[in-house]
């Protein structure tokens, strides 16, 4: 009699796991939109991509890849560095993204009162970016 609830408990566990994974993916992928809204009034400056990497992330049974771009820029003759992360579902897309930006000149947005805070936005880059 105790085994009658096992299939239901297993299904419930699977649904909870999928909801947690889905919430995590929405959080990762929606951050780009929020970042573009927050940085829309920031200063534009020229920067350069120094290097980048791709790291696999796992949330239960779901894997995704985070491409991190490390860049440098200057504001009022002071040099700063920053990093930009973008999530991908496929490693090949993340690798292509990093490879297409390495060594490239980019447009960086920096906070007007805190120039050490910065980001990159797709709409600021000439021709957008790959992936």
Placed side by side, the strands forming the largest sheet appear as 3-2-1-4-5
| SS class | alpha+beta
Which regions have little confidence, pLDDT < 50, spanning 5+ residues? none
Give the CATH class.
Answer: Mainly Beta
- CATH architecture identity: Beta Barrel
Per DSSP, the total helix count is: 2
The share of residues in extended strands comes to: 35-45%
Largest sheet entry = 5 strands, antiparallel
What is the typical, i.e. mean, pLDDT?
86
List how many beta strands DSSP finds: 5
Please report the distance between the alpha carbons of the first and last residues: 53 Å
Count of the domains: 1
Radius of gyration, taken over Cα atoms and rounded to an integer in Å? 20 Å
The H/E string reads HEEEHEE
Helix content: 25-40%
Overall morphology: elongated
CATH topology: OB fold (Dihydrolipoamide Acetyltransferase, E2P)
Q: Could you explain how this protein is built, in words?
A:
This protein has 131 residues and is of the alpha+beta class. It has a single domain (2-124), classed as OB fold (Dihydrolipoamide Acetyltransferase, E2P), CATH 2.40.50. It is built from 2 helices and 5 strands, in the order αβββαββ. The N and C termini lie far apart (53 Å).
């Amino acid at each position: 009699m105790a085994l009658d609830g096992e299939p239901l408990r297993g299904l419930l566990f699977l649904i909870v796991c999928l909801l947690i994974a889905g919430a995590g993916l929405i959080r990762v992928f929606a951050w780009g939109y929020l970042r573009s809204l927050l940085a829309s009034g920031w200063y534009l400056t020229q920067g350069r991509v120094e290097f980048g990497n791709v790291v696999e992330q796992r949330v239960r049974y779901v894997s995704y890849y985070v491409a991190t771009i490390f860049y440098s820029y200057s504001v009022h003759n002071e040099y700063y560095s920053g990093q930009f992360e973008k999530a991908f579902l496929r490693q090949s897309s993340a690798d292509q993204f990093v490879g297409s930006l390495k060594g490239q000149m980019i447009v960086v947005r920096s906070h007007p009162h805190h120039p050490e805070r910065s980001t990159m936005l797709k709409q600021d880059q000439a021709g957008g970016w790959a992936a």
